[in-house]
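Known limitations

Files may contain more than one protein. Parsers should not assume a single record per file. Below, a two-record file is shown to illustrate correct handling: read the sequence, read the token line, then continue until end of file.
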Amino acid sequence: MATSKNIDFDPYFILGLTIPCSDSDIDKAYKKAALKWHPDKAIRNGISKEDSEKRFGQIYQAYQFLKDESLRETYDEEVANKKRRKEYEEERRATSSARRQGFEDKLKAREEVFESRKRKNQASKASFNFDKELERLKKEGAAYLAKIVEQEHRKAAATKTSTVPQANLPENESIYHISADKLRELEEAELEGL
């Protein structure tokens, strides 16, 4: 609450005072707080040394700050301005609360619609990505299946062409001792079997 160039705490609170107060009130409050928070006495009262040293330093700073009339007047003006501003804001809020509430409700409804649409868009994107991935996997599976079928066809074709037809000859005849007519008959029989 204090001016930032001097102190960063409320000097009245540290000394237990209220605005306005006299110089004698400041002196009395300083002596009382200094006795309570002095590091040597605070340890006996169960207060840690670090806390008491910090608070004792703040008490001294608050005392020096409030004893300076110009700093105290500036600070008192700042506090009064903040108090007036707060009262003004509360009054303004009370007088225009119905109108403002209507605007706030409309804004809140719009924000909810926006968030709902945003969630729906995210869900549709997720399902779109799922559908896209599913389609990709189907294509990949079909390509793999086509590859397997092609390999099987090639394998079957290779075994068909690589097998030499065997002539069905009686046991006592050899292919070398067969007549041309008999050879033609065997060829025709084999070709018909294919």
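...continuing to the second record:
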Amino acid sequence: MTLDEIVGAISSLKAAGLSPEAAAAKALDPHRRALAWCYGVYQKQLKAEGSVDFDDLILQPLLLLSGNLETRSYYQSRYTNLIVDEFQDTSRTQYGIVHLLAEHHCNLTVIGDPNQSVYEFGGAMGAEGFELFRKDFPEATAVYLPHNYRSTPEVVALAETFLTNAKMSNGNGRQVAVRSSGPPVFLYRASSEYQEAQWIAEEIVRAQHAGYIAYDDCAVLARTNAQIQFIEKHLVKSRIPCWIMGEGTFFNHQEVQVIRALMRLSLDFLGDSLALKEALDAFRWIPAELRNRLMGDDPELTSEHLTNSEGLKVLKPDACAVVRQVTERLHTLNDHQGDTPEAFITFVMTDELFGFNKVLKSHTDSDIRFERVRELVRMARQFATLGEFLDDLDTMSGDDPLSLFSAKQVSLSTVHAFKGLERKLIFFAGFEDGFFPLASTTANPQEDLRLAYVGFTRARDALCVSFAQTRGGCRRLSSGWLRGLPMEMRQRPNWPNEVQRCADRELQTQLN
């Protein structure tokens, strides 16, 4: 097992409420015994440091409440009414705390949907949690909510048909949409992942120009981060403001920020101290202590201190030599301030003094980072000077406070990360075998079904589902789960209130 796998396994043991001793007692094979041993060593180290990890924040209170009657009685009287939302995502340890707090007064309300349980890999009990609740609180009253106030009848019909086809329980009958009718659910078949991403970009622009959505009314969902990052590149290329939930925008990525900073320094070396600190990411060989001082808020280390002999006196001789080497390299940027943006990026990536390509290769996700740089190069080809390109980047990234891009952006997210959220228009990309269900021997098909259901039900007004016939050069098949669903396969959805010729004309202007 890798270190990450061991850490994940220990987290699962804690989510199940098992101590190292309990895990060892349940271990029936050498693999589990070794894992229980690692768990014990890990806990001893935490205790020696007086620390707890995230999972301990749940497990330790559970052990305290279950083992100390006085403490349990105090908190039972302190919290006399309990409400648990998203109950299907509750772990066994979390439920253990709730049960202990409520066992005396039984004033407990839980709210959830077993069909939206998508975190079993993280210890969530899902439907089992509801069964356990009924067993522990047999007098509880169940209230079913058959009315759907979020989505249009078309989206609700798709979700309900999906549940029926998948033979998943839908509680106490089918959901009924309260809202008025909307557009049909669209299904798009793309020849490749490139065509799929381009189609999504075009339809977002068309829907926005038609007045059907603002950019922040829209979200693009997919199974994996890699799919989302691929689509992000095409949206950026089409000048659609977007951000990946949990990561930020294309322009927030380290490699993009460093290249922008180096461009700024080539034009204004002394006047841009922020760019100077950002550019230091290109020099990974700087000793860690000095690097932290240079990139921190040390008042003794401004850009002026780094560029004159008086300022260097605050440093030790060996650190002073390193800083001189850095500043000499940065000064060479002045010789390239007249380069085209494309030529400048090529220089900082390949020049021996910078060798930023070596920095990117040192990362485990280097392929994605290089792809972002290539996308930046494609954007740079449209501009003749560094100043023009920087102005455009500042506008697109929202650095310009007057930019419309800073206010409204399309959300890009995995389905897992988007759970609990909603948008007017949802694009659900990559609905193929291998993603739904996931091509993994450890995948749970039932959880994959629930994940797809969650994705469908994020849409309020309109839902577009797409799949690619080839991805990564390999032939793909649409997911068999699409069969029998009430969807319309179209090349172009008709967005309500759309002025077609105007929208198409503005679309061509923006994409070109």
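Parsers that stop after the first record will miss the second one. For reference, the second record is described as follows. Residues 399-407 have pLDDT under 50 and may be disordered.
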